[in-house]
Amino acid sequence: MSLAVPSVTLNGTTLSVAGEVNAETVMSLRSRGEALIRSARSPLAVDLAGLETAHSVVLSMLLCWQRAAGESGATLTFQNASDRLRSLAALSNLDRQIPGFETA
Question: Tens digits of per-residue pLDDT, 80-97?
Fold first, then answer.
């Protein structure tokens, strides 16, 4: 079984995440995303539509990206998270800490 290699790209003000993120791949993806966030220095939308996994390491990565954005004066809003990732965030009490994950 081959895994979809995870990637993160910046196109204008949209940071897009795609592929399968796991414990082995999260650190390189996290580092790449942080570098892109720091270079953008503007409000960014993080598009999670291409993300193929819902895992606690993904939530950790998103929180790290949020911290990196705050340190560089940027803001992030997360969009198109899967229902499964949203549920995991809610179960972890992180849904209110990740902009775009809030539930009504």
Answer: 999 999 999 999 999 988
